[in-house]
Amino acid sequence: MDHLAVTPVAQTVLIAPVLASVRVLPPKGLNTSWYLDINNFSRHTAWAHTFMHNYALWLGPVLLAVVFVVVYAIAWWRRASRAAALLFLGGVGTLVALGVNQLVDHAAKELRPYATHPQVLVLVGKTTDYSFPSDHSIVAGGLTLSVLLVVGAGVWRRRPSVARGLPQEPMVEPSGLGAVRTLVVVNIVLGLFLCFARVYVGAHYPGDVVAGYLLSGVIVLLASLLRPLAYWVVDIVEPTVFGVVVRRPLPATAG
Q1: Where are the alpha helices (DSSP H) in 25-117?
Q2: DSSP conformation class of 110
Q3: Bridge partners for 110 per DSSP
Q4: What ranges do the domains of the chain cover?
Q5: Contacts made by residues 49-55, CB under 8 angstroms, sequence distance 24+
Q6: Which of 31, 117, 191, 251 has a Cα-to-Cα distance from 245 of 20 to 30 A?
Q7: How far apart are alpha carbons 124 and 131 in whole angstroms?
Protein backbone atom coordinates (compact mmCIF):
# COMPACT_ATOMS: atom_id res chain seq x y z
CA MET A 1 0.00 0.00 0.00
CA ASP A 2 3.05 2.26 0.08
CA HIS A 3 2.47 3.33 -3.48
CA LEU A 4 -0.87 4.84 -2.42
CA ALA A 5 0.55 6.87 0.42
CA VAL A 6 0.32 10.64 0.02
CA THR A 7 2.55 12.92 2.04
CA PRO A 8 1.09 15.99 3.82
CA VAL A 9 2.92 18.25 1.38
CA ALA A 10 1.44 16.39 -1.59
CA GLN A 11 -2.02 16.60 -0.03
CA THR A 12 -1.64 20.36 0.29
CA VAL A 13 -0.57 20.67 -3.34
CA LEU A 14 -3.49 18.57 -4.55
CA ILE A 15 -6.20 20.03 -2.34
CA ALA A 16 -5.23 23.71 -2.39
CA PRO A 17 -6.34 24.38 -6.01
CA VAL A 18 -9.72 22.75 -5.28
CA LEU A 19 -10.22 24.78 -2.13
CA ALA A 20 -9.25 27.94 -4.00
CA SER A 21 -11.84 27.31 -6.70
CA VAL A 22 -15.60 27.80 -6.73
CA ARG A 23 -17.71 24.81 -7.69
CA VAL A 24 -20.83 26.69 -8.83
CA LEU A 25 -21.28 30.45 -8.93
CA PRO A 26 -24.62 32.03 -7.93
CA PRO A 27 -27.39 31.45 -8.64
CA LYS A 28 -26.26 27.96 -7.70
CA GLY A 29 -29.71 26.37 -7.79
CA LEU A 30 -30.63 27.63 -11.24
CA ASN A 31 -27.17 27.02 -12.68
CA THR A 32 -27.13 23.46 -11.44
CA SER A 33 -30.74 22.49 -12.23
CA TRP A 34 -30.78 24.06 -15.69
CA TYR A 35 -27.40 22.58 -16.54
CA LEU A 36 -28.50 19.09 -15.48
CA ASP A 37 -31.83 19.43 -17.30
CA ILE A 38 -30.10 20.42 -20.55
CA ASN A 39 -27.57 17.65 -20.05
CA ASN A 40 -30.40 15.18 -19.65
CA PHE A 41 -31.93 16.53 -22.86
CA SER A 42 -28.57 16.00 -24.53
CA ARG A 43 -28.55 12.34 -23.46
CA HIS A 44 -31.87 11.81 -25.23
CA THR A 45 -30.90 13.53 -28.50
CA ALA A 46 -27.96 11.45 -29.62
CA TRP A 47 -28.86 12.18 -33.26
CA ALA A 48 -27.71 15.79 -32.74
CA HIS A 49 -24.43 15.09 -30.96
CA THR A 50 -22.10 15.36 -33.95
CA PHE A 51 -23.59 18.63 -35.13
CA MET A 52 -23.71 20.14 -31.64
CA HIS A 53 -20.12 19.08 -30.98
CA ASN A 54 -18.95 20.85 -34.14
CA TYR A 55 -21.18 23.89 -33.62
CA ALA A 56 -20.09 24.36 -30.02
CA LEU A 57 -16.39 24.07 -30.87
CA TRP A 58 -15.83 25.84 -34.18
CA LEU A 59 -18.84 26.03 -36.49
CA GLY A 60 -20.77 28.57 -34.41
CA PRO A 61 -17.88 31.08 -34.09
CA VAL A 62 -17.04 30.64 -37.79
CA LEU A 63 -20.62 31.38 -38.89
CA LEU A 64 -20.74 34.45 -36.66
CA ALA A 65 -17.47 35.68 -38.12
CA VAL A 66 -18.73 35.07 -41.66
CA VAL A 67 -21.84 37.18 -41.05
CA PHE A 68 -19.66 39.94 -39.56
CA VAL A 69 -17.41 39.91 -42.64
CA VAL A 70 -20.41 39.91 -45.00
CA VAL A 71 -21.87 42.99 -43.27
CA TYR A 72 -18.48 44.70 -43.56
CA ALA A 73 -18.40 43.78 -47.25
CA ILE A 74 -21.85 45.34 -47.74
CA ALA A 75 -20.71 48.52 -46.01
CA TRP A 76 -17.55 48.58 -48.15
CA TRP A 77 -19.48 48.02 -51.39
CA ARG A 78 -22.07 50.67 -50.55
CA ARG A 79 -19.22 53.06 -49.67
CA ALA A 80 -20.67 53.42 -46.15
CA SER A 81 -17.31 54.19 -44.59
CA ARG A 82 -18.79 55.11 -41.21
CA ALA A 83 -20.55 51.76 -40.99
CA ALA A 84 -17.21 50.08 -41.73
CA ALA A 85 -15.55 52.16 -39.00
CA LEU A 86 -18.22 51.20 -36.48
CA LEU A 87 -17.81 47.53 -37.36
CA PHE A 88 -14.06 47.89 -36.85
CA LEU A 89 -14.70 49.27 -33.37
CA GLY A 90 -17.01 46.34 -32.65
CA GLY A 91 -14.36 43.86 -33.73
CA VAL A 92 -11.75 45.53 -31.55
CA GLY A 93 -14.21 45.60 -28.65
CA THR A 94 -14.79 41.85 -29.04
CA LEU A 95 -11.04 41.18 -28.89
CA VAL A 96 -10.73 43.38 -25.80
CA ALA A 97 -13.63 41.48 -24.22
CA LEU A 98 -11.76 38.21 -24.77
CA GLY A 99 -8.79 39.68 -22.92
CA VAL A 100 -10.93 41.00 -20.07
CA ASN A 101 -12.58 37.60 -19.88
CA GLN A 102 -9.26 36.03 -18.91
CA LEU A 103 -9.03 38.38 -15.92
CA VAL A 104 -12.61 37.66 -14.84
CA ASP A 105 -12.07 33.95 -15.41
CA HIS A 106 -9.09 33.79 -13.05
CA ALA A 107 -10.79 36.01 -10.49
CA ALA A 108 -13.99 33.91 -10.38
CA LYS A 109 -12.20 30.52 -10.48
CA GLU A 110 -15.35 28.54 -11.14
CA LEU A 111 -14.67 24.86 -11.84
CA ARG A 112 -15.97 23.34 -15.04
CA PRO A 113 -19.37 21.69 -14.47
CA TYR A 114 -18.04 18.24 -15.35
CA ALA A 115 -15.47 18.60 -12.56
CA THR A 116 -18.28 19.14 -10.07
CA HIS A 117 -20.68 16.66 -11.69
CA PRO A 118 -18.49 13.82 -13.02
CA GLN A 119 -21.54 11.78 -14.02
CA VAL A 120 -22.71 14.21 -16.73
CA LEU A 121 -22.44 13.65 -20.47
CA VAL A 122 -19.65 15.73 -22.04
CA LEU A 123 -19.46 15.93 -25.84
CA VAL A 124 -16.22 17.94 -26.08
CA GLY A 125 -12.72 17.46 -24.78
CA LYS A 126 -12.40 18.25 -21.09
CA THR A 127 -10.12 21.14 -20.13
CA THR A 128 -8.55 22.29 -16.89
CA ASP A 129 -9.28 26.00 -17.30
CA TYR A 130 -12.05 27.80 -15.43
CA SER A 131 -15.65 27.96 -16.59
CA PHE A 132 -16.90 31.51 -15.94
CA PRO A 133 -17.44 33.34 -18.28
CA SER A 134 -17.51 31.41 -21.57
CA ASP A 135 -15.07 32.51 -24.29
CA HIS A 136 -17.45 31.32 -26.98
CA SER A 137 -20.29 33.44 -25.60
CA ILE A 138 -17.91 36.41 -25.54
CA VAL A 139 -17.48 36.01 -29.28
CA ALA A 140 -21.22 35.50 -29.76
CA GLY A 141 -22.21 38.62 -27.84
CA GLY A 142 -19.47 40.84 -29.26
CA LEU A 143 -19.96 40.03 -32.93
CA THR A 144 -23.75 40.09 -32.65
CA LEU A 145 -23.83 43.52 -31.05
CA SER A 146 -21.19 44.82 -33.48
CA VAL A 147 -23.50 44.01 -36.38
CA LEU A 148 -26.55 45.33 -34.54
CA LEU A 149 -24.94 48.74 -33.95
CA VAL A 150 -24.55 49.47 -37.66
CA VAL A 151 -28.28 49.25 -38.36
CA GLY A 152 -28.56 52.99 -37.71
CA ALA A 153 -29.32 54.82 -40.95
CA GLY A 154 -26.84 57.59 -40.14
CA VAL A 155 -23.83 55.39 -40.79
CA TRP A 156 -25.15 54.17 -44.15
CA ARG A 157 -26.07 57.48 -45.81
CA ARG A 158 -23.41 58.71 -48.21
CA ARG A 159 -22.25 62.21 -47.42
CA PRO A 160 -21.13 64.96 -49.86
CA SER A 161 -17.58 64.10 -50.87
CA VAL A 162 -16.06 67.45 -51.94
CA ALA A 163 -15.29 68.58 -48.39
CA ARG A 164 -13.33 65.38 -47.84
CA GLY A 165 -11.19 65.76 -50.95
CA LEU A 166 -13.11 63.08 -52.88
CA PRO A 167 -14.88 63.35 -56.25
CA GLN A 168 -18.45 64.60 -55.99
CA GLU A 169 -21.05 61.92 -55.23
CA PRO A 170 -24.78 62.62 -55.03
CA MET A 171 -26.46 62.17 -51.67
CA VAL A 172 -28.03 58.73 -51.63
CA GLU A 173 -30.61 57.41 -49.21
CA PRO A 174 -29.50 54.50 -47.00
CA SER A 175 -29.17 51.30 -49.02
CA GLY A 176 -28.19 47.82 -48.06
CA LEU A 177 -30.04 48.15 -44.78
CA GLY A 178 -32.57 45.44 -45.65
CA ALA A 179 -29.85 42.83 -46.07
CA VAL A 180 -28.05 44.03 -42.94
CA ARG A 181 -31.23 43.84 -40.84
CA THR A 182 -31.71 40.25 -42.01
CA LEU A 183 -28.11 39.43 -41.12
CA VAL A 184 -28.59 40.97 -37.68
CA VAL A 185 -31.44 38.56 -37.00
CA VAL A 186 -29.34 35.69 -38.34
CA ASN A 187 -26.45 36.65 -36.06
CA ILE A 188 -28.68 36.91 -33.00
CA VAL A 189 -30.01 33.40 -33.66
CA LEU A 190 -26.53 32.01 -34.33
CA GLY A 191 -25.10 33.66 -31.21
CA LEU A 192 -27.84 32.53 -28.85
CA PHE A 193 -27.71 29.02 -30.27
CA LEU A 194 -23.94 28.95 -29.69
CA CYS A 195 -24.54 29.85 -26.04
CA PHE A 196 -27.06 27.01 -25.77
CA ALA A 197 -24.69 24.63 -27.52
CA ARG A 198 -21.93 25.28 -24.97
CA VAL A 199 -24.29 24.15 -22.22
CA TYR A 200 -25.67 21.28 -24.32
CA VAL A 201 -22.22 19.74 -24.81
CA GLY A 202 -21.57 19.94 -21.07
CA ALA A 203 -18.83 22.59 -21.13
CA HIS A 204 -20.55 25.44 -19.25
CA TYR A 205 -23.30 26.37 -16.84
CA PRO A 206 -26.07 28.65 -18.20
CA GLY A 207 -24.72 31.48 -16.05
CA ASP A 208 -21.33 31.21 -17.76
CA VAL A 209 -22.71 31.86 -21.22
CA VAL A 210 -25.11 34.59 -20.10
CA ALA A 211 -22.28 36.41 -18.32
CA GLY A 212 -19.98 36.15 -21.34
CA TYR A 213 -22.66 37.40 -23.72
CA LEU A 214 -23.45 40.41 -21.53
CA LEU A 215 -19.80 41.18 -20.72
CA SER A 216 -18.81 41.39 -24.36
CA GLY A 217 -21.93 43.40 -25.14
CA VAL A 218 -21.01 46.02 -22.52
CA ILE A 219 -17.41 46.25 -23.76
CA VAL A 220 -18.48 46.59 -27.40
CA LEU A 221 -20.91 49.35 -26.37
CA LEU A 222 -18.09 51.15 -24.57
CA ALA A 223 -15.87 50.77 -27.64
CA SER A 224 -18.62 52.26 -29.80
CA LEU A 225 -18.38 55.48 -27.77
CA LEU A 226 -15.14 56.10 -29.67
CA ARG A 227 -17.03 56.38 -32.97
CA PRO A 228 -16.51 60.19 -33.28
CA LEU A 229 -12.77 59.50 -33.26
CA ALA A 230 -13.21 56.64 -35.72
CA TYR A 231 -15.27 58.84 -38.07
CA TRP A 232 -12.61 61.56 -37.90
CA VAL A 233 -9.93 59.04 -38.84
CA VAL A 234 -12.07 57.76 -41.70
CA ASP A 235 -12.52 61.31 -43.06
CA ILE A 236 -8.74 61.66 -43.12
CA VAL A 237 -8.04 58.24 -44.63
CA GLU A 238 -10.72 58.19 -47.34
CA PRO A 239 -9.04 60.64 -49.77
CA THR A 240 -5.79 58.66 -49.55
CA VAL A 241 -4.77 55.39 -51.13
CA PHE A 242 -5.74 53.68 -47.87
CA GLY A 243 -9.36 54.68 -48.31
CA VAL A 244 -9.94 51.40 -50.15
CA VAL A 245 -9.94 49.70 -46.74
CA VAL A 246 -13.23 51.34 -45.73
CA ARG A 247 -14.97 51.98 -49.06
CA ARG A 248 -15.18 50.74 -52.64
CA PRO A 249 -13.13 52.97 -54.93
CA LEU A 250 -15.04 55.45 -57.05
CA PRO A 251 -15.04 54.95 -60.84
CA ALA A 252 -12.15 56.65 -62.60
CA THR A 253 -14.62 58.98 -64.39
CA ALA A 254 -16.32 60.13 -61.18
CA GLY A 255 -14.50 63.46 -61.26
Answers
A1: 28-43, 49-54, 60-77, 81-108, 113-116
A2: B
A3: 22
A4: 25-241
A5: 49/123, 52/123, 52/197, 52/200, 52/201, 53/123, 53/124, 53/201, 55/193, 55/194, 55/197
A6: 191
A7: 14
Between the CA of residue 155 and those of 79, 136, 149, what are the distances in Å? 10, 28, 10
Positions in the chain short of pLDDT 70: 1-21, 153, 157-176, 251-255
**What's the CA angle centered on 99, arms 222 and 193, to 5 degrees?**
80
Diameter of the chain measured on Cα atoms: 89
The number of residues in the chain equals 255
- Closest listed residue to residue 213, CA positions, set 84, 74, 60: 60
Question: How far, in Å, are 33, 107, 134, 216, 245 from residue 25 at the CA level?
Answer: 13, 12, 13, 19, 44
22 backbone dihedrals φ, ψ, rounded to 5°: -105, 130
Q: What is the CATH number of domain 25-241?
A: 1.20.144
> Given this model, what pLDDT does residue 17 score?
45
Report d(CA 50, CA 192) in Å as an integer: 19
Angle at 46 between CA 40 and CA 50, to 5 degrees: 120
pTM above 0.90, yes or no: no
